[in-house]
Amino acid sequence: MDIRSLFGLDLDSQAQAEIADLNDTNTGFRKRDPGDFLRSFVSGIDEEALRKRTQELQTKEINRTIGKGQGILKDQAAGTGLTVDGLAYKPGSTVEEYQTNLGIQESRIKDVQTLRSMKGGENVELDPNAGSGAIRQAQGTLRDTNEDKAETKVKTEVLRQEERSDDRYFNERQDRHADRKFDRRRDDARNDLTMQLAQMDSALADKRLAYDRETRSMDKRDKMIATLMSGIGQLGGAFAL
User: Fold this and answer.
1) How far is residue 83's CA from residue 129's CA, in Å, rounded to a whole number?
2) How many CB atoms lie within 10 A of CB 139?
3) Crossing angle of the two packed helices 34-43 and 167-240, in degrees rounded to 10
4) Rounded to an integer, what distance in angstroms lies between the CA atom of residue 7 and that of residue 228?
5) For the segment 90-148, what is each residue's pLDDT rounded down to a tens digit?
6) Mean pLDDT of 30-39
7) Domain spans, the chain
8) Are 109 and 73 in contact (CB under 8 A)?
9) What are phi and psi of 29, to 5 degrees?
């Protein structure tokens, strides 16, 4: 048994306690105080080893909680023709950036699923890295094409049945078609704006949580230093015996 674990000085115990002190991108510690250097000296664990283990624990926790749906997204993306990146969190980006990317990838997958479900959608060629905007544009183009084909079919049928050209009737249908197209694009723009506002609200909430987490970590550090000093005293007594 590692005697350091009795005083919370083993690698995992120290790393777990230092998670709150990682910087926003989980690539290093924000700062090191005298208590940190004292723990390193007493335990014999250097800062680099502690940083790597702390980073591993935090990365694993982020993927377990925030990124728990990445497997579902991978399955949904299969066969759509899209390249989906960044589903697993890696140090170098903030949690907020990772959450934003997950939302973007999820939107891309939903949009391409909608496109493929449309008549003729399975034949539409897409750039593997196409964003939601390009995919929705492809939806609109395909929808217009399908409606134009339907309109042409209706006109042909009317002409066949009546054996005459009724331009006024056709123009009225064309006007209604144009009105529907305008309403649809207006609704798409409104939905895009709503999604952007929701993402902004989510980012603000995440920043408030990060501030609260940093405040709590400062109180936790003071308590750890007191516990450490007490443990060193006990250790000194043990060696004296």
Assistant:
1) 6
2) 19
3) 60
4) 7
5) 999 999 999 999 999 999 999 999 999 999 998 999 999 999 999 999 999 999 999 99
6) 85
7) 66-240
8) yes
9) -85, 150
